[in-house]
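I am still getting used to backbone structure tokens and would like to learn alongside you. Would you supply a protein for us yourself, any chain you care to pick? Start from the sequence, derive the backbone structure tokens from it, and show both lines together. Go ahead whenever you are ready, and we will take it from there.
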Amino acid sequence: MTVAAARVRSPLRGLIAIDKLGDMMVWLMLWMGAGAAAGSTAAARAHLGSGNQLMQAERYAEAAEEFQQALRDDRILTQARDHLAICYFELRDYGHARTLLKHMLADKRSASLAAYYLGRIDLIDRNFDAGIRRLLSIPRENPVRDELYYLGSAYFKQEKYAESIVVLRHAAAQNPRDSRVHQLLARAYQKAGQLGEAEKEFAETRRLHDYYLEGSTAIARCRALLAQGNPEGAWVICRPLTETDDVDKIAAIGLLFSEAQEYRPALDAWQKAATLDPDSSEIQYNFALTCFHLKDMLRAREHAAEAVRQRPDFVEANILYGTILYMGGEDGEALRVLTRAHDLKPDDGAVRRLLAEELSISAEQHMRNRQWPQVVALLEKASALEPDSQQISQKLAEARRELVKTR
């Protein structure tokens, strides 16, 4: 409605409108500004929603762009700031992440989350004391995520194994399905000399190794594509996920592709995992096994030997290492390792056959020197392992005859 029209309909109102025209213009501008602000907030929330969806899919770079746009539209949208900080963390942009996380500390609603991620950055920087203080500051009655796992990890890296065990046992009680907790607890028990407890926890780790596979949307998509016979598509999704400092996530991806017998991408994952955590016997073993399937025997031998060195009672690692030594003709070392493997797993048929073969080979070496007592002893052990082997039985009978001749 124009001012003139207002005069025609109501002279009084028209006069008021003319007198208050300046105020009306101010009001109109304020109203338009408020509308623009409302539009800006709506746009910001749209970007926030898009960012949340991308974040759920673990597409952190794209999510970060959405959160940045949300903050450009609405600078006080704290959800966008908090999620952007987490995206920066996942993208290993720890400088920008730390800046945002420190702002979050001032807000009671986000202080615990900020302490969690700042503590993890401290651990990555090997500032263990600072990391421990951060993680201990999170109220136990209101946990954030898996801070007890990282607190136990910090104590472990400081070689405070007793403290690590106490914390990790609490973590296992809170989340008994977290395979990472059981694996680290096993290693802490091992370092503390509690080998029986360590083996129990290693066994539990293997039982629960699907932890990350079930908990990650992106990894679940990889698994589905592998099941559909599309390993290339699966690796397109999973390869970016290995660009992280989260060794457990990388190991989960390695297991996924190893179980699908897609050893090339699995090798890439295990190599990165071994770089991040070279003291993990499980990672060393899986790295060796993948190299073995790819017929890279030099690297398979190296990492299998390391797995056995780190954990002498690791059954599968001893079996793999013994097999590699046997195939490489390193009979003396193969005999020692396979004997240990048999002691650990006496009912394993493959180990019995390989050990019997190595005993027979060792016996032949003694035959050349006509050391018949040693020959008989070795072949008797081989025969006990493989009682149905006619070849071993014939060698044993011949050795016994030669032994009688020397008496």
